[in-house]
Amino acid sequence: MNDNPLDKLGEEIAEGAASPVAGVLSSVVAGEALTAVGGRRRVLVELPAYLFVQIAWFAAFGLQTVLFPYMLKNILDVSGTMLGVAQMALAAPSVVFILLGGVVAERADGRTLLVLFHVLASVPAVALAFAMRTEGLEYWMMLAYAIAMGTIGAFMMPARDAILNEVVERRRGAGSTITLQQGVAFATLAQFAAQIVGLWIGGFANWSGVWPLLGVQAVIVALGAIAAIFLDRGRMVQTGRKGAGAVFGDILDGMRCVRANPILLSMVISMFGVGVFVIGAFLVILPIVNADVYGFESGGLRNIFVTFWAGAFCSSIAISRFRNLRRPGRILLAAQFIGSAGILFLTTHTPYPAFIALVFVWGLAAGISIMMSRSIVQAAAPPHMLARVLSIYQLGFMGGAPVGAALMGIVADRAGPQLVILVPSIGMLAMIVWMTFFTPIWGMRAPETHEGGSGI
Question: Can you list the domains of the chain with their CATH numbers?
Answer without folding.
Answer: 5-438 (1.20.1250.20)
